Structures are given as structure tokens and as C-alpha cells.
Amino acid sequence: MRARLVILCVVSVAAVLLIASPSPAGSSAGLKAGAARIDITPEKPVNMSGYAARKDLSTGVHDPLSARAVAFEVGGKRLVLISTDIIGYYEDVANYMRKALMAEFNLQPSELFLAGIHTHAAPTPTLNRERAHANNVEYTEGLKPKLIEVVRKALANMEPAKLGLGVGSCPVGGNRRELRVANNGESSVVLGRNPYGTTDKEVLVMKVAKADGAPMAVLFDYATHGTSLGTANLTISGDVPGLAEQFVEKILGSDVIAPIFVGASGNIDPWFRVLPGFNEEPGWVPEPVLLGTFLGEEVVHVYRAINQTQSADKIATNFVTLQLPAKPPEADSKEKKRESVPLNVTVARLGDVAFVGLGAEVFTEIGMAIKAGSPCPHTFVITHCNGAASYLPTKEVYVQDGYEVKTSPFSPQAAEIVVRESIRLLHGL
Ligand SMILES: [Zn+2]
Q1: Are 241 and 229 in contact (CB under 8 A)?
Q2: 276 and 229 Cβ atoms separated by less than 8 Å
Q3: Which DSSP symbol is given to 162?
Q4: Would you state the pLDDT for residue 54?
Q5: Could you count the other beta carbons within 10 Å of the beta carbon of residue 235?
Q6: Centre of ligand 1 from the C-alpha of residue 120, in Å
Q7: 302 neighbors 205 (Cβ within 8 angstroms)
Q8: Which whole-number Å values give the CA distances from 173 to 29, 168, 294, 372, in the listed order?
Q9: Separation CA 200–CA 203 (nearest Å)
């Protein structure tokens, strides 16, 4: 009994010492991080994503596409975040890439956030040999070893690290659900500009610094579609989100990896679109470059104001596939009625910071509700992550209809379930 008491006392003294003793200057108390970037610009002409009516192959490259990986580790538990300058990973492609990455690096499904930046000026990723252009299948197959390589580099680069967070705001994205009323009084919602619609303008910035304070990576989260180049564009580009990444890396130096993670942007477009493509005439700044610069400048501004960094004592993760209620097919449709539609939700906690990866294009209100209910002061809501289950609108907009509601496979109740379950999963970490 006495021996047990002594042991208990020793253990509790050790525990108090552990809590009380500050970590030595420059040490990171166990957090390690690494980052890497790899070029993924297509070498051959490809079909491009995002607009069903655009059939022609790409005709050139305006700016390069990259995949950026950031890896974290605390006490053997890892978290790998990948941002890819493509539209996103549709189900079979997401599984194909994720399986390869998880097998290669022995990652759990919840330890991998594989996201696209949703640029509409990049190749359509596909493995469908019968229906897709051969160059697109070749591109997609070639992307797999590149993702493996960029993660390998990020893991190999890991060293003691510290994190700092900052928040800014940017007006580049705007609510795109514009209400139009025709002469006969009938109203409809079109993809346009709605200055009164909800728009999450938060720019969340995470600085990942080496033990000596030198920057290693700058992760940022912002909600907008990458559609500034519009439907007629045939030029490869990261569009607004990709150009913002390039701007940040240009300013901070190319050894700093600056991945964007696209927030809840299902109903958010860049406020401006190009008039005549990438016009480079003297005195003309192409709109996507201008908007990417605005966003990138805000990231740099927030980054420069981060004057405190700290370690993280824990990584916790979870991954679930929600089965959400499906929308019944239209009366004249030949589609079969589905009971449910799967949506992947990946959550992680890294110290004080939360990550919520959603395999769909969720409305901006959904991301804001998740942030508001999150137990962490800062939450990265990441869409187009670990899957792509199309649009997830809020319940209220189903009566208005519009493009996202028409194309969504989900019933009006689905959004509330995603918000509730995401917050519940975060609280469980
Ligand atoms: Zn979209």
C-alpha cells in the first residue's frame, strides 16, 4: 500500500513537473512538420473541368499547376494535407489516389486530406477510358506517382515546427445566386452576383515555422470557386485560388509552400470574370491575376502580423461516410430513386486548430455554421476533399431552385445533418 502511494506521489510530481516546466527555447515539444510542392501541369492538351458545354481541348498554359503537401506528426500520429490545383477528386478518382497514398505511407483514412482547389481551368481528372479523352486518363494516372512523390518529400522534410494562426478578410468571392424577375413576373435564380447574399469572407492563415522561426509553409483557407476565367477559356491556369498560391510563394520565397484550401464555396464565385480571356495588352491586368493577387496579398498581410507561434501537443483525426437523404428524381426524369447519397467527412485537430474536410461543394452558410459550432478557435473548412458528391445547398434555397439545387443529389434536410455531424465529430476529437 505504502509502495503504491509512493509510486502515485512520484507519478503525480512528475505530472506536475511536466505541466509546469516550459519547453526549452526553440523546442517544439514533439510537433514536427514538413512541406513540399510538385508540378502537375499537363504536358498534352486535355479536356478541362467544370463546364459541360466546353468540349475543346486546352490550347496552352497561362500558369503552372502544382500539388502541395503539408505533413504533421506528434508522437507518431500523422496528418497529411494535400492541396491540388485541379477541380477536385470525383469518387472513383478519389478512391484511386487515396488508396495508393494510404498504402504507400501506411496512413489511416482519417489522416489524409486530399483536396482540389476547384480551378475550372485544369484537366478533368478521370479514369474512364471509354468516355474520356485518352490524354485525361493518362494525366490522371500520371498524377498518382506525383502525389506519392510530393507526400514522400513532405514526410522526409519533417523537422520540429511551431504553428501560428491569423485571420483576415477578402472581398474576391461573392454570393453568386442572383434573383432575376422576368417581365411576366416570374422569378428565377441565375449564376450571377448577389450583393445581399451571405458570403464568408474569412481568410484563415496558418504559419508553419521551423524551430528557428523561419517559415516552412503557409496554409490558407478561403471560399471561392476558381471560375474567373469563364466558360470560353481554353488556357490552363490555377485561376484565382492557384494564382493566389503563386503570389504568396513569389512574395515569401519559393521554398515556402503555400497551399490554399478552398472553403465552403458552393454558392460563391469570384466577383469578376474575364471579358476577353487572358488579355495581356499594356495597361490590362487579367482579372484572375488581379483577383488572385488581392487574395494572396491578404494572406501575406495576415501572415506578417502573426507574431506568436506555438507547438501542438496532439493530433486527433476521424473519418466517416455520412449517408445523407437523397432528393427524389424529377417527375419526368428516368433516374432511379435513391435512398441516400454518401458524403465523406474527415475531421482533424492539431493543437488548437480544427480541420473539416467535406467531399462535396457545400454552401457558404454550412461552412460558417461549422466554424461557429467548432470547439476550436480556428477551423479550416475544406471542400472538394476526399471525394466530390456535388452541391450541398442549404434547406432554405430549395424553394428558390437555381443551378446548385437542380444539380444537387441531396434532399433539403442534408445540410443540417452535415453541420450537426461535423460539429459532433470535432467535439469527439
Ligand atoms: Zn463548383
Answers
A1: no
A2: no
A3: E
A4: 87
A5: 17
A6: 8
A7: yes
A8: 38, 14, 11, 20
A9: 9
Nearest to 122, CA basis, from 135, 107, 113, 131: 135
Q: Would you say residue 16 has pLDDT above 80? A: no
CA of 127 to the centre of ligand 1 (A): 20
pLDDT at position 333, please?
74
- What's the DSSP call for residue 274? -
Cα separation, 248 vs 61, in Å, equals: 20
Under a CB-based contact definition with an 8 Å cutoff, are residues 256 and 218 in contact? yes
Residue 125 Cα to ligand 1 midpoint, Å, equals 14
Q: How far is ligand 1, taken at its centre, from the CA of residue 88, in Å?
A: 9
DSSP summary character for residue 256: S
Residue length of the chain: 429
Distance CA 136, CA 145 (A): 15
Q: What b/e string do you get for 290-315 counting C-beta neighbours within 10 Å, with b at 16 or more?
A: bbbbbbbbbbbebbeebeebebbeeb
CA–centroid distance, 117 to ligand 1, in Å, is 10
**Model confidence pLDDT, tens digit, residues 103-118:** 999 999 999 999 999 9
The reported pLDDT for the residue numbered 29 is 52
Classify 110 as helix, strand or coil.
helix
SS3 287: helix
CA–centroid distance, residue 339 to ligand 1 (Å): 24
Query: Taking the CB of residue 187, how many other CB atoms lie within 10 A of it?
Result: 10
**pLDDT one-digit tens code per residue, 362-372:** 999 999 999 99
> pLDDT for 289-301, tens place per residue?
999 999 999 999 9
Per-residue pLDDT tens over the stretch 28-46: 459 999 999 999 999 999 9
Q: How far is the CA of 142 from the centre of ligand 1 (A)?
A: 24
Residue 24 predicted with pLDDT over 90: no
In the structure grid, which three cell numbers stand for residue 423, read together?
A: 460539429
Cα separation values, 318 from 71, 109, 113, 163, 387, Å:
16, 8, 11, 21, 15
Enumerate the domain spans of the chain.
315-427
Query: pLDDT per residue over 379-417, tens digit each?
Result: 999 999 999 999 999 999 999 999 999 999 999 999 999
Residue-wise pLDDT for 157-208, tens only, equals 999 999 999 999 999 999 999 999 999 999 999 999 999 999 999 999 999 9
Q: Which is more confident, 18 or 358?
A: 358
| Measured distance CA(285)–CA(215) in Å, rounded | 30
